[in-house]
Specification:
- Pfam families: ACBP.
- Keywords: Lipid-binding.
- GO terms for molecular function: fatty-acyl-CoA binding.
- The chain is built from five helices and no strands.
- The protein is an all-alpha fold.
- It has one domain: Acyl-CoA Binding Protein (Up-down Bundle).
- Helix 2 runs parallel beside helix 5, helix 3 crosses helix 4 and helix 3 packs antiparallel against helix 5.
- It starts with a helix and ends with a helix.
């Protein structure tokens, strides 16, 4: 079960702020995963080197799967090269649960921290 603060008020979430799990509404491990995921998102933004296009696609696909779930839109048109790459990266993660996508994202960022530095 996901932290309802993450699912419903994602834009209002501030790391360290009390979440629903701490208020005894849901499983506390969900909130820990959410906090680790948000920390990884911030770490991915400050890598010393810009990741390759393929690595950015991995991060994008996992991020979208973790935050929005399976793809719910049609593939962009043939002239929208960037949109198609993003859609393909997200579609390749289809079927992962939000929890699995968060965990994969965290692991990917850990690998990229070693590869690109932080």
């Amino acid at each position: 079960m996901q932290c309802d603060r993450f699912n419903h008020q994602r834009r209002l979430y501030k790391p360290g702020a009390p979440c629903a799990a701490r208020l005894n509404r849901i499983d506390p491990t969900a909130c820990r995963h959410e906090e680790a995921f948000l920390r990884a998102v911030e770490e991915a933004k400050v890598l010393k080197e810009r990741p390759s296009v393929a690595d950015l696609g991995v991060l994008y696909g996992l991020y979208k799967q973790a935050t929005e779930g399976n793809v719910g839109t049609e593939r962009p048109g043939i002239l929208d090269f960037v949109g198609r790459k993003k859609w393909d990266a997200w579609k390749s993660r289809e079927g992962l649960t939000k929890q699995e996508a968060m965990e994969s994202y965290i692991k990917a960022v850990e690998g990229f921290k070693e590869k690109y530095g932080i």
